[in-house]
Amino acid sequence: MHTRTLTRTHMQRVGTSAGDSPNLGVTLIELIIAISIMSIVMGVLFGLAISVGDTSRVQEEKMDAFDQARKGILYAARDLRQARGFGISELPADTVTYRVATDLDGNGSAVDVSGNIELSVERTITRDFDDLNGDGIGESQLVLSNGNTVMVLANNLLPDEDINQNGELEPEEDLNGNGVLDRGVWFERVGSAVRVQVQAFGQSRQGHVLSTSMSTMVVPRN
Ligand SMILES: [Ca+2]
Ligand SMILES: [Ca+2]
Ligand SMILES: [Ca+2]
Ligand SMILES: [Ca+2]
């Protein structure tokens, strides 16, 4: 009797513990599955966050390139429009020099008492090759200089691809691989007008160079 009871009790214990353990097992499996799903979801979300970040960064770079080109064109055109047509330097070139009508004697107009037109000192729109404004940015910067002051018109100019300066595109010069000779900044005469082209870039996280090219026609005063 005693032995039987013990055995039954023992068996009951085994039974009880055998009955509990499947529940515990399922809970553990559920937990593992839950963690796995969570890891996958987190991974997907993380990946999404990175790609959204990349996309917005690319957009930002595009906007920046656009802004720089637009600023360059706007400022250059605004000043060139005041230029005396006959005094504009030889074009096409990546630099333009000119004079604008200016009231030098303060009589209220850009002519002197004898009726002669008063002209400003020479103004030059050029890449800042010699870093005239000392901001550490050289030829990727477009500046307007009048001898005394240097105004930044744009930054992030595309490099001039015409390395040997022959006016033609050699295959090894095509840095952005678009089959076109890109100059970054370029001035050329079209009839009595001056065509101004400004090309600026932005760089994405992956190192892709995103660029914007803008041009406008300016008819200087005569
Ligand atoms: Ca005057
Ligand atoms: Ca500079
Ligand atoms: Ca060339
Ligand atoms: Ca090119």
Concise summary:
36% of the residues lie in helices and 20% in strands.
Question: Would you kindly provide a written description of the structure presented here, covering whatever features stand out?
Answer:
- By secondary structure, the chain is an alpha+beta fold.
- It has one domain (55-218).
- It contains 1 helix and 7 strands.
- A 4-stranded antiparallel β-sheet has the order 1-2-3-4. Strands 5-6-7 form a 3-stranded antiparallel β-sheet.
- The longest helix has 79 residues, at 2-80.
- It is elongated and about 110 Å long.
- It starts with a helix and ends with a strand.
- 19% of the residues are buried.
- The model is unreliable at 3-19 (pLDDT under 50).
- The site of one calcium ion (CA) has 7 residues, from loops.
Helices and strands in order:
Blueprint: H1 2-80, E1 96-98, E2 123-127, E3 142-145, E4 150-154, E5 185-190, E6 193-203, E7 209-218
Antiparallel strand pairs: 1-2, 2-3, 3-4, 5-6, 6-7
The protein binds calcium ion (4 copies).
Residues 103-105, 107, 109-112, 118 line the site of one calcium ion.
Which short descriptors sum up this protein?
alpha+beta; 222 residues; binds calcium ion; 7 strands
